[in-house]
Amino acid sequence: MADPYIILNELAQELRPMPQGIEWFEGLSTEEQSNNLRLLSHFCIQARATAEDGPESIRRAGLRATHTPAVLITRGRIDQQLGKIASLTPHDERLKSFRLLIAVLAVADERRRERFCSDGCGHAWHRLSVDTPEASA
After folding, report:
1. Is residue 57 within 8 Å of residue 104, measured between CB atoms?
2. Quick one: DSSP state of residue 125?
3. Hey, is 58 helix, strand or coil?
4. pLDDT tens column, 64-98
5. Does the predicted TM-score (pTM) go above 0.85?
6. Which of 29, 74, 69 is CA-nearest to residue 54?
7. How far apart are the C-alpha atoms of 117 and 40, rounded to whole Å?
8. How far apart are CA 84 and CA 94, in angstroms?
């Protein structure tokens, strides 16, 4: 796996399994993790994430409502909260943030596809496909 733009979108579209994404994320330096969390936050905004996406995203990410990223996603303006989530620094919070932001992107992008892209679109990230070992078997 190389290009974070592709990896993050593949994870959000469930074209790559989350355990593989977590392994990739944990293999990054702290700076690279922070950069990818900011990138994910930006993707969520581009996909038009809303505050209403919070509860479903928390559920999909497998977080408890009391985890810091989960608390943040349900409070205040979504664009500000996404930035705060991407800026969390403790390692365990970064991992929770990664899982949550992937889920937010998944929820928002699914809605975007249904509303705006159902008859086709020019978004390259909506035409991804992965030849994983499971798909080849």
Report:
1. yes
2. G
3. helix
4. 999 999 999 999 899 999 999 999 999 999 999 99
5. no
6. 74
7. 20
8. 11
